[in-house]
Amino acid sequence: KIEDEDLDSNDFEHEASLLSSIRHPHIVTFYGNLDTFIYGLKNHKKKISFVQKIRILSNIASGMSYLHDRCIMHRDLKPGNILLSNELTAKITDFGLSKLYTTDSGSMTKTCTVGT
């Protein structure tokens, strides 16, 4: 549970700014601030088959790969931060702790793309 005094508008602005710059089918799309919460993977009540679990994990891996290609570290990936559609398509959410990074180690430099 998040207490009101723990909320900082700068945290929301950071997350909104980051999310508005990325588009991927397995990362939640930012449309604006919402006052309601959607239950995610952690609170999913129906039985999920092995094949469905593999598909969900594939969705998450695809989304994380997309983020890493753009030099974005999520830093808080957990079941509570995965949303599921009615069709069990996974979406990564909660970018409040995320950070942009650069890699420049010796002769290897990773090129990252930020934006759409």
TrEMBL record:
PROSITE patterns per record: PROTEIN_KINASE_DOM, PROTEIN_KINASE_ST
Domain of life assignment: Eukaryota
SUPFAM superfamilies: Protein kinase-like (PK-like)
Listed transmembrane segments: none
InterPro entries registered for this protein in UniProt: Kinase-like_dom_sf, Prot_kinase_dom, Ser/Thr_kinase_AS, Ser/Thr_Kinases-Pseudokinases, Tyr_kinase_cat_dom
Stored Pfam families: Pkinase
A GO MF term: protein tyrosine kinase activity
Domain Protein kinase: 1-116
Protein name: Predicted protein
Organism: Naegleria gruberi
